[in-house]
Amino acid sequence: MLPVLALYVATLHPGLPAGDSGELITVAATGGVAHPPGYPLYTLLAGAFAHLLPSGNVAWRLNLFSALCMAAAAGVLAAAVARQSRSLAAGALAAGVFALAPVTWRYALVAEVFGLHALLAAGVLFALTLAPRRAVVVLAAAGGLALTHHHTLLLLVLPAWLLVFVRALRAEPAVGRAGLARRLLAHSVLATQAGLLPLLWIPFATRHADALVWGDARTLRGFLSLLLRAEYGTFQLDAAGRGATGQAGRHAVEFVTSLPVTLGLPACAAVLAGMFTLLRRRRALAATLAAYGVLQLWFFTRIGFESGVPVLQGVVERFHLLPVLV
Length: 326
Prior knowledge:
The chain is an all-alpha fold. 68% of the residues lie in helices and 0% in strands.
């Protein structure tokens, strides 16, 4: 983690980046509400970090927050892979490939939500190495946090939670499975509710007179509109309702064909070898990651932006970060 962090800090953006960074910096600094879905978890953590760090301008501090989150994501990923493979070298290799991927490095240098998103995703993968009963609760909490930050994390959390839930039940004698299932579901509901707590910030922050606030979450309708991303399309990414035709497979194809450049050919070969190894030795985990892959491909089909337009490619590229990490 430390070498990666040093690399990110050495190349960190020194001031105010382009894109959404200006909005996110202002929202975190003033305690406001960002664009849908509001990103309250980022606002609270990044805002606290900016106020506690005594040096540098606010923009630089929040750029540094992204670097810390992305470096931590690489560290957690290394631990997850090392525990699954029982190989420190494999963990270091996976973390290095992820940390140096262009899309990772790019969003590690600027104030954006994707560093924290990657850290949460790496935490989900690490949870798969825990005892099943503990993992059920951890992943349920991660599902709640996904709704307070970046909703695409649910594409990974849902199949991961189902895997550990089934594992926990299989480890229990048949006579006690029904009772265990009820307890795990109850604990999962409570953990999910705990993960949702940052959402309470949105209606509170809406009343800040001096804060940058997107929309009006003082009413239930306004709150749900923000949380469900109504302006962008709740179950799609189609901000202007463009409904670009003929794009239903293009973004998925563009992601897959970008991997040799993003990861490098040796790493792509290692990915394929790892897939075959999982299919032979850990079929349940392979099925879980395959289910995530199907959900991720489905998400790519829900992107209504035209492919081949450079500025829109930059918008879509940020959604490559999660599948690159996985």
